[in-house]
Structure formats: C-alpha cells, structure tokens
Structures
1.
Amino acid sequence: MRFLFIGGTRFVGRAMAETALERGHDVTLLHRGQTQPTGEAFEQAEHLQADRDGDLSVLAGREFDATVDVCAYVPRQVDRLAEALGGRGGHHVFVSTMSVFADTDEPGLDEDAKLVSLDDPSTEEVTAETYGGLKVLCEKHAASAYGDDLTVIRPTYVVGPHDHTGRFTWWVRRIARGGEVLAPGPHDSPMQVIDARDQAEWTITLAEEGKGGIFNSTSPTPPFGFGDLLEATVRAVGPHDTTLTWIDDAAWLTDQGEGYQSLPLWTEGGHEWTLAGDPTKAIASGLSPRPLTETISDTWDWIKKEQPPLVPGWGITEERELELLTAWAGRPASS
C-alpha cells in the first residue's frame, strides 16, 4: 500500500511509519525537516518537506491508499489537508487524544462518553485548557471530510523508545539510578500508558484493513494506578537498593511548590478518570499491549544507547528530591 504520514519522524508517527516500512509498504513522510529519523527502514521512505500550515502543493496529483495524520491540533489544519488531498488520500487515520473526554467521576470511559467543549470554538491557541476541545473539533472536521473512511485513535500517554516528551522517561532515569525515590501519591491515582510500537502495529493494521471507527488507545485495563506504574518501573530497571517513599499528602507537596512538571505524570493528588479509559473495543480490533516491564526496559536501553538530553522543565534535581524527603521524614506527626 501507499502510505502518507503527516509528521511521522519523531515518536508517535515515527513508530507508525517504521511499522509500515517494515511491512513492505511504500511510505511518504510529509514533514518540515526539523527531525530526521535514522535507521535503515527510513532510507526507503520518500520525504516531502513542507509545513502543513503553509503550501501543501507538494501533494498535488499524488494518490495514496492510506493517510495517517499525527500532528493536527486545530480544525483548520484538518480542513487544509483534506483540501490538498482532494479525495486522493485513501483511508484516513486521525490521531487524537483521550483528553477529548469531559470530566467524570468513575473509571471505564468508552468511546461514546461525553466530550469536552470549548468556550471559544474559534480559538487556535493550544493550551492545557484548550487542547482536548480543539482535538474534539479536529475529529468532527475529519469526520465531515472522510466519513466512513476515517479511523480515530485516542491515545493516553504514549511511551517507549524515542519518547521525546521527558515525562515517562524521567521516571525511568530516576528509578534506574536507585536509592530512595520520592513517590507522589495517591498510589491508586488512575494511570494508563501505551507503547508507541504496540499502538503503531495495531493502527497500521486498521489502515490496511480500512477499518473505520473511534478507538481508545489505552492500557492497562482499569484499575491501574500511578503506584502500579512506578512499581513496574522498579521491577524493570531499579537496582536492588531502590525504594519508593510514598508522600500521599498532595497538599503538602504542592505547598512545597511541586506539581505536574516537577513530578511528571503526577495528577497532584486528584483522580483523572480520563486515565482510566476502557480499551475493550481497541483490544477486540487487534491492539495487543506488551508487558509494561518490557516497555520500561526497552526505554532504558534506548536512553543508555542514545543518551537523549533531559527535557528542560521536567523533573526535580537529586538535591531537591533529598530536601523534600528529609522534610517529609522530619515533619510533625500531626501534619
């Protein structure tokens, strides 16, 4: 098949493009040229350099059997791509997010759960507050453009080798260092992750089969908590002296100035039920997540081999962690 990837060079799209190449498909990557994927497989791909917010005439006259869009964040981008393809893109895969769901108070969100809405649907400012709502609009515009030839993938946190975000990888690095690890509670705060490679294998199969629909790309099946994630990381990469010291008093940690950025993936004491989605439909259609410890081990192997730099703004220093652990241990018994 002839695959077109919008993006496909960095992480989520990279895994999908690599899977398509490994299966023998003809792959075209449309990207800005800022990230050049390495590896023998990518030498076989055609690279079209263009900015999706600019001139897309490079797509004129080209036909594809499937298009995978991993980097549309505002509906205008969806519309412009559909116009540029002019019905020649084949089956369309749009990568969305679990952030499209409205707040709820229970686990098990399925694909038909209530979605968020924007106060200002005309905004194109992508923030933590508008990200989910903009993706909802992107989904709607994609449905209007492609109809039954549309597959929507809604990932939770995507993890694994080549993860450039600095969130999950911070914990892998930290726990691989060993010693006493500050673990922000609660232990049972909902958490889900999906290996980019497992998501890719499944997504490319859906595209090959032309299987439309909306799917939650989530794992593991609830209940699964942040504590389970950290404990799996200890089992996978933690030295023998690794211990987790749980600080379940979220207010105490936030009073110390800590939050989601300094303690990546921490929900600051809350239960975010969008991190407890129901993967039943995805699994029935072929999603097959590998053991989490395998993902963690492979991520650590990639970090050791490639030595990617720490992502600025994520995580705390060793000195700050020790300071917090010391303060926690020495706090008054009543606090």
2.
Amino acid sequence: MTESPKPLGMSDFFALEAGEYLERLDGMLAKGDNPSADEIVRLARALRGSALMANQHAIARTAAGLEALARAVREGRRAWDPQTQQIALRGVDDLKIFVRRAGTWTDADTAKAEALAQQLEQLAGRPSAQIRAVEALGLDAGARAFVAREGAAIAGTLERAAQALRADPLGHDPLQHVMRALQPLRGLAALNDLPPLPDLLEGIERAIGELSRSGLEPPASVGELFQVAGSAIARAAREVAERGRPDPEGADFRQFAGLLVKFMESEPDAVSIGSLYYSDSGPHIVSRGVPAARPSTLGKLELVSHGEHLRQAADSLERAPSATQRELRAHTLGTTFRALANAGGGVLADRVAQFAMAGRDAVASGIAVNSPAAFAAELRRAGDVLARSGTGDEEALATELDALTAALRTIQPGAAPAPARRPAPAPKPAAPAAAAPVVPASAPPQRADQAIPETPDLVGSWAAYQRLAVGGIGTASLAELIAGAAAVERVPAPAPGSRLPAPAPPSAESSAVDVRTLLYRGERALRRAEELRATAKQVSGDALRELVEEVCDLVALAFEPGP
C-alpha cells in the first residue's frame, strides 16, 4: 500500500508561484532591447504580493526594489541601457536564490536582501508624485496587489451568484459565498481611503441582507444588480493596482448605485393570505389574526443610540467625495428613517417618528443629495437632542425636535446649513445681592439677548460685558493703558470656578488680589483643563466643541510660567 502524498503548504505554494514569476521576468529581461516596462512592473508587483502573503517580508522588500527600477524605466527617469539590463538580471538571479532558501532563511539572507533592495531603489531614483501620494496612504505595492487579487475573486463570485439567482431566485447559497468572499477585503485597514470600494461592499451586503430577511422571491433585476456589482469591483480593484486609487465616479459604480437604490426602494406586493392556499375545500382561514402590539415607547438607551447613529450618518453624508456616493449613503438613511417612523408611542418617540418621516421625504425628493450640508446639519442637531434624552426633560426635547422637523421640511435644494440653535443656559443659584448697575437715561432699550442671567461662567461674563457696554465704556485711551501698566491693578476676587472676575462692587470687606493671579498660567491652566475634561463627559455638539477649543488654549498657556 503506497503512502498518500503530503499536501502542499504555504511555503510550497509560494515557491511555485514565485518561481513562475521569476522565470517570466528572466525571459523578458534576457531579450535585451525594449522589454515591456508595464509587464515587468506587473510581474514584480505580483511577486511582492505573493511574498507578503507567505510572510516572506525580506523577499517582498527586494521585489519592491525591482518594481521601483522598472517603474523608473517606464516613467522615463532611467534609460533602458546595458547597465540597467545587467542590474535587473542580477536582481532576478538573486531573487531566485532567495526563493530557494525561503525554507532555511537566516539573518545573513535578510541582510543580503535588504542591501539588494536599497541598491535597486537607489538606482531607480525618486518615484513620481502619483506613486508617492499612494504610498503616503499606506498602499505599497503589496497592498495594491492584494486589493487587485481579492477584487478579482469577489467579481468572479458575484458573477456566479448572478447566474445562480437567475436560475433559482430563492436560492441563498450563492449569497453566503459572496459574503465569505467579501471578508478579506473588508478587513483591509486602508479600505476607507479607496472610495468607492467601501460603499460598493456595503451596498452588496445590504442587498444580501434584504434578500435573506424577506424570504420572498426577489425582483428580476437582482441578477443584473450582482453582475454590475462584480464589474464595478473588478474595475475599482484594477485601478487601485495600476494607479493607486479607483475612480469614485466610474460608470460601473454609478450604474450599481442606481440599481441598488431601485432595489432597496422596491416594496413587495401585498397579497391576500387566502390566495396562498390550494384551491380545495379547506379548511383555509380558521380565524382572523391579531396584529402584533407596537411597543409602548422607546427606551432612553434606544433614543441615545439613535442619536449617535444620526450624528455618524450626518458626518458620513458630508464626507462623501462624490455625488454617487452621497446618493447611496442618503438612501441608506431611508432604511433608518423607515425603522424610526414605525417605532412605538410616547411624547418624544412620536416626535422622532415625525422627524423620521420628514427625513424620508427629504431623501425621496433629492434634498438630502442636492443640499447635503443643510440636511446633515439638521440630522446632527436631531442627534444631539436624542443624545440628551437620557437625562433631559422629554417635553422640552420634543419641542426642540418639532422645530428641527419644521426646519427639515423647509430646506431648499442647494441651501446652506442654518446657524446652530443653542438652548438657553439653565439658571444657577443666585449670588449674594449686589447693587444694581446705574444705566444712563440716554441708554438704548434693553435687547432680548441681554436677559441672560450673569452666571459665573463664560455666558454670564459675556452678559456682564454687554450690560457694561450699554452703560457706556468710553473711547479707547493710550494714556489710560500706559497708566494701568505702571501700577498694579487690584480687583475683587473672582467667584469659585469662574473664568473671569464676578461683577460685584468693591467694598471694605472684599479681599483684593493681584490681577495677574487671575490669569491661567502653568499649573493653574492644567488644573482648569482637568475641570473642563470632567465637564466634557456630560455635553455634546457645539458645547463640546467649545470646550475642546478652550482646553487647547489652556494647554498652550500651561507651558508659560505662573505668576
């Protein structure tokens, strides 16, 4: 009885694949005069990708040097002369030796491979601006080869799935094969820097999810959807391998986006349950069913989660680099709005449903695509409102959502985002009574925005400044400034935790301090930054951005010595 042959391992596959690439390179280089630089680049890139997959990083480094030399010849930065030919042939011969020694690799081999790679790269010179821009994203030749290989595999799987769905629309096995084929490329860290590949993969996953959940026969266009998706991915992966970036407005991607939008918006026809039975004497429908009860209300945790999702969706919509990607991401929101519009009751949940219906109308009418900045601004504000639902008053939050829903319905195509609406700050405990400021009779009438209480924070300080401005501050005087610099000004001590001195009239009992001690410098700036860090955990939106700016200023002041 003969023993069965031992199966090939990863190193054996690498030796076979790399040996084939090197033999083809040797044959092309030995011809002499004008070998195809594009073919040399392609083979060297494939060799590097194969070495990376086999965990042979030193060989991949040398293959990258050979690729750089071939690219320099292709771009005209180095002439193809006998010297360049001899260098390339010697590099291929050394690579053959490295591949044969892959199973017994030593540190000395690593040093030789590194030295050869540096020599080849030095002869190649500085790469082009396009290649430098691609490599700055972390996409070296191995990564581009990986994208090309996995993209071709996904395209082939999608083509087979399209044919299987045309033959058996209810078969789900081809869909599972597609999901498994997507996994390697979805795990690439630099995928988000290669639009429209992320949107392509996400769109395919959404289509598969809809087909798996419905259980109904899909529309006839689903086969065409997967076939066009395969063509789009194959083209995008090929462009990554050749140029480092795919075209986000490619014709295949636009066609896929249009088919996906139609597929996601198509609703299955409702049929009578009685029509599903055989045409016999029965029994068929015995008793009328009872519809499932809707949840009484959305929990606070669910509302906060929806708020975070809306904010992320707004950022994603604004960052879309092309109109086609923006349309695809906007229609993704349509699914989210559909779920929110069917949520349970409750004061705040009802307002969320109304906002969701307004959002669905904006997506359906094209407002979300034509006015992305204004639409995203309202989404983000709605997300901020829902994020506060864990601790805020539901009635007040529902009122804010009413205003946002009205603003969303009034957005016009091409409209700019409306300025942020900030809620009025909550009043704080009253400070000890102080003498009311004297306002001259000639002062203009008090405006509505001056009714803000003078609380011991930045808002209260601004309100105090406006009150003093109404009373008349006087014209700027250089003499006053010089006189103030000569003497140390003494003012009442500030209220605890405030950034500016509290506006209170001086008295004999009030303690006077040096004005320079009120400035944040050194250790005081660090302590204030720690206080703001604790406050930042309880706020979001515009308030959080203001705190971040203030912390950045305090960090700069912390490097200055204290008084």
3.
Amino acid sequence: MRWNDRIGRRIKLSDLHILLAVAQSGSMAKAASQLAVSHPVVSRSISDLEHALGVRLLERNPRGVELTEYGRAMLNRSHAAFDELRQGVKDIEFLSDPTAGEVRIGTTPPLAATFVSAVIDRLSRRYPRIVFRVMAERGSQQEQRRNLNERRVDLMIFRNVAAVADEQTSFEFLFESPYVVAAGANNPWVRRRRIALAELMDELWALPAPDDAFGSFVVEAFRASGLDFPRTTVVAIALEMRTNLLRTGRYLSIIPEFWLQLPDRHPFLKKLPVKLPVASGPIGIVTLKNRKPSPVTQLFIDCAREVAKPLTRRN
C-alpha cells in the first residue's frame, strides 16, 4: 500500500484528536471524559492508529499512559496538521469577511502592556472586528516557546534570545530597546547630566531577585561595572509595582526603555544618564519557519512594523 493511501484511508483526524487528548491528560479514562465519549471508543481509536502505523504510540504505567518516541513524533506532526486546518478555516473566514478574524500573540507582560497594546490599538481602529488573544503569562521562556511549537499562538513578540529563537524559528527585527536605570520625574538624580553606576549603590533600589531570569541580567550589569549587586529595598519582578515605587521619587530600578516610550512617553518616569555595560537582545517577531501566517496574522505583523518604525529611528 502506498503511503498516501495509508494516510487517506486509514489515519483519521478524529483518532489523532483522541491521541492528543490522551497525551494531554495522561489517561484514557480522563480523555474519554473530556471528549464525552466512552473508554472503549478511545481505546479503539488508539489501537486503530497503532495498527495503521505499525508501532506502539502509548506505554501503560501505574500512573496511566505516556507517549512512546513514536507517539511523540506523531503528535508533533499532528499539531502542525491541525494548525494547517485551523489556518485554512481562518483563511476562508477572512476571504468572506476581511474585517474579521483572530490573531494569537505570545509575549511578556511588559511588552504586552506597551508595544503589543500599541499595535492592537492601531490595528483594531482599522479592523474593529478582529479578536486579539494575548498570552503573556509570567512563565519561563521555554513555556512561551512551547506555545509557539504547539500552535497555541500564531507569533511571538520577544527579545532575540536563544530560548525562543533558533533554527526552527524566524526572527524579524523590529527595534532595539536597552535596559536603563530609571527614576521618578521628581527624583534629584534626574537633574544630573552624567552619572556613574557606582554613585547609585547606596540608593533605594527596587529590583528583581538575583536568581530570577531578569535578575541575572541585572547582576551582570553591576558585575561588569566592577560592582556587587546593591542592597535591594524592594525585591519584586512585577514591573507595574516597581513603576509605582519609582513615581514616589525615592527609588531607582532597571527597566526596559520601551516601558518609558509606549504606548506614549511616560509622564512620571525618566531615564537616568547611566551607561549599563551589558547588551540586551533586539525585540522582534518570532514565527515558526515554513508556517505561512494567516491573513489576519499578517495584518498584525504589518502593523507591528509600523509601530516599531519611530522606535528604530529614535534609537
């Protein structure tokens, strides 16, 4: 039997859907409950798939079931297959109504509150029926990348770091946004024209913990200047909280410069003239290679380029 015949006649999308549910739940019984079908239906679908492929897709263990290496390989491709079908439906919807559709964006909370918000605001004014789903949980970079791999998001707005950009993805540069030392507009340091980082060691700092992903960057910034990590008055990763503390004029923090620029120039915070001797990756659009964006996703990409242009000129 030819391979195309095996796919067309013996592998069913419903069986792949059941395999995905079993893999996510770790149990045939749980998958049956989630799908509102009987346990024998789930078991038969898995058996049919294994018979069609000639390999075992699942292994039973005391905790339930888990994918074999063959099952993982099949599931990885199944994500792509379902995604292509989903994109096909979106394309048809867009052709029937170019003013509607959905785009799913993975990003970080700071970028979601600034750059991504600015893009959404501009695009939604042109196409008010587009739905934007933004996934900006404070998870690890690996979790964000997994969302892209499994097609839970259409694209990512992210810094060009190894955890999210590699040979499987395409990275399109949008703008540079270095990390800066920031203070409230009424902080006395704002009046200075040049400041050495060492001069600020005894100030009140609001910073993330040194063992946090961003905290390690802050540690390196001080270390590269020949300094220890400063005594931190407030240890917090939440940028919104640190911003509120900066507004009092008493605290200092290290934040991405885009936080001061978008969606509009921040009225209460200022960048201090301090040079941080460490580089930060550029910000851009991360997509999977060989995955054509839907028409609505392409509209978002085009709008992101527009919003980024002034930032590129400014930097």
